[in-house]
């Protein structure tokens, strides 16, 4: 009896891409299975508040852009006839370690904007130990004016915060900027605070300064040549083209405050105080003298 014909050999597989390393079967490890690959966890909150102010053509200021995210909520407040008011409201506790918050404000030609915060900002420690960042970016077009008057920033024990404020001004713009830092709550040691303020006018540097306070800061920050035991420090910067014709003179305000004219139509008032209340009194007096 004749046998069945032999089966035809299988057709060759169509050519294709060579298997990649990730497609290859995992090799057994002599010490056990290889750990699964996981992306690094991203900690902290990223949030940006954006404000745009433009002249409305009727002598006032409109706000075509008013958008906040996460802990940065924005509310329009009652302003003057020419000036629009905006309040920055904290919608949650921030900044914590690992957070990155940004405030961006821009004033168009002829616009007037008053920007403030509703309460003090507390820099708090996070669980991962990463520093927090708080950026402020101000852009002023010609003949515009911006007042940035936030409440104090409190550096809480164990926190690590890096603050960066940048302002870019047209030659005819006016800026009134106040910064207040409080090192620790009542009876509390401060965290690490690094702060830098950079101001340019007509594309040229007007002011660039940096300070660091708290554990980990360069030595001497709390010595006689530094804060000398004070726990509240602040400054008031006023940039006004009118100073070109009548520049303020250097002066001493009280025991721990000084007025420094800058190389441009601007003046810087720096102050130390034992607490936030006394610091505000000194800076308010300076604002009445040099601001608007």
From TrEMBL:
<keyword id="KW-0963">Cytoplasm</keyword>
<keyword id="KW-0996">Nickel insertion</keyword>
<feature type="compositionally biased region" description="Low complexity">
    <location>
        <begin position="34"/>
        <end position="45"/>
    </location>
</feature>
<dbReference type="InterPro" id="IPR002669">
    <property type="entry name" value="UreD"/>
</dbReference>
<comment type="function">
    <text>Required for maturation of urease via the functional incorporation of the urease nickel metallocenter.</text>
</comment>
<feature type="region of interest" description="Disordered">
    <location>
        <begin position="1"/>
        <end position="45"/>
    </location>
</feature>
<comment type="similarity">
    <text>Belongs to the UreD family.</text>
</comment>
<comment type="subunit">
    <text>UreD, UreF and UreG form a complex that acts as a GTP-hydrolysis-dependent molecular chaperone, activating the urease apoprotein by helping to assemble the nickel containing metallocenter of UreC. The UreE protein probably delivers the nickel.</text>
</comment>
<feature type="compositionally biased region" description="Pro residues">
    <location>
        <begin position="1"/>
        <end position="18"/>
    </location>
</feature>
<dbReference type="Pfam" id="PF01774">
    <property type="entry name" value="UreD"/>
</dbReference>
<protein>
    <recommendedName>
        <fullName>Urease accessory protein UreD</fullName>
    </recommendedName>
</protein>
<keyword id="KW-0143">Chaperone</keyword>
């Amino acid at each position: 009896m004749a046998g069945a014909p032999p089966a035809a050999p299988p057709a060759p597989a169509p050519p294709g891409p060579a298997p990649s390393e990730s497609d290859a079967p995992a090799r057994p490890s002599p010490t056990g299975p290889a750990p699964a690959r996981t992306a690094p966890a991203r900690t902290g909150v990223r949030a940006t508040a954006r404000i745009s102010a433009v002249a409305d053509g009727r002598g006032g200021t409109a706000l075509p852009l008013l958008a906040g995210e996460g802990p940065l909520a924005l509310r329009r407040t009652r302003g003057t006839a020419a000036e629009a008011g905006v309040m920055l409201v904290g919608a949650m506790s921030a900044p914590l370690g690992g957070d990155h918050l940004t405030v961006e404000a821009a004033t168009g030609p002829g616009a007037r904007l008053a920007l403030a915060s509703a309460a003090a900002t507390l820099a708090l420690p996070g669980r991962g130990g990463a520093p927090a960042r708080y950026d402020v970016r101000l852009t002023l077009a010609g003949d515009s004016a911006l007042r940035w008057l936030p409440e104090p920033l409190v550096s809480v024990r164990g926190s690590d915060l890096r603050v960066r404020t940048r302002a870019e001004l047209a030659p005819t713009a006016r800026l009134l900027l106040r910064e207040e830092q409080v090192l620790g709550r009542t009876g509390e040691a401060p965290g690490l605070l690094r702060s830098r303020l950079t101001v340019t006018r007509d594309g040229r540097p007007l002011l660039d300064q940096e300070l660091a306070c708290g554990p980990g800061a360069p030595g001497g920050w709390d010595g006689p040549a530094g804060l000398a035991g004070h726990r509240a420090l602040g400054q008031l910067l006023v940039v006004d083209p009118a100073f070109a014709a009548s520049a303020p003179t250097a002066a001493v305000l009280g025991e721990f405050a000084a007025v420094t004219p800058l190389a441009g139509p601007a003046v810087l008032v720096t102050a130390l105080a034992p607490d936030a209340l006394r610091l505000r009194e000194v800076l308010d007096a300076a604002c009445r003298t040099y601001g608007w």
